[in-house]
Amino acid sequence: MRQSTPVSIFLQAATAFLLLASACSCGYSIAVSSPWRKDVQTPGSEIRFFKTDFSSRIDSARNAGLPVFIDFYTDWCGPCRVLDRDVFKDGQVASYFNGAFLNLKINAEKGEGVALARQFDVGAYPTLVFLDAKGSEKKRIVGLTTASKLKKTGRQVNESR
Fold it and tell me: What local confidence, expressed as pLDDT, does residue 21 receive?
């Protein structure tokens, strides 16, 4: 069995510190609510997303004068699952987004999602993109967010129309 020397212990600790420091400085804002806090989740209340045919959905939004909310996700993305499980099922968020936006959910690694992720310059997941009714990008959230921040951003986009 190999014994650790003080130098090897120092190198292991320094490596662990650098990994932790780089993970914390990656630009993501991580927001987690406490496990005992119950958000406003009504059974069956969640953001209703369309998952197909981006161009016809954009045309529908343009005709209806609605802004567009896009969730770019991947199947392997842990924070994307947290958004699906917690944030998108918040009753107040769902009620607001279902009435104020045309909501699209796009898998950035499958089908037309690959080209759309490239078109919107998506480099991390989740990426939440807000478009006006004409299809111009107004705001973007990269990484995990809270229900209150998502709703606030949605209101800002709607107020700027």
Answer: 47
- Strand order of the sheet with strand 68-73? 102-107, 68-73, 127-131, 137-142
pLDDT at 31 over 70: no
Cα-Cα-Cα-Cα dihedral sign, residues 112, 114, 117, 120: negative
CA–CA gap between residue 103 and residue 70 (Å, rounded): 6
- In contact, 141 and 153? CB cutoff 8 Å: yes
Alpha-carbon dihedral sign for residues 43, 46, 52, 53:
positive
How crowded is the C-beta side of 77, counted as CA atoms within 13 Å?
24
pLDDT over threshold 90, residue 17: no
Ordered by where they begin, the domains of the chain are 54-159 (3.40.30.10)
Q: Per-residue pLDDT averaged across 128-152, rounded?
A: 95
Under DSSP, the state recorded for 50 is B
Coil, strand or helix: which one is 28? coil
d(Cα 59, Cα 14) in Å, to the nearest integer? 54
Is residue 71 scored above 50 in pLDDT?
yes
Q: How far apart are CA 93 and CA 16, in angstroms?
A: 38
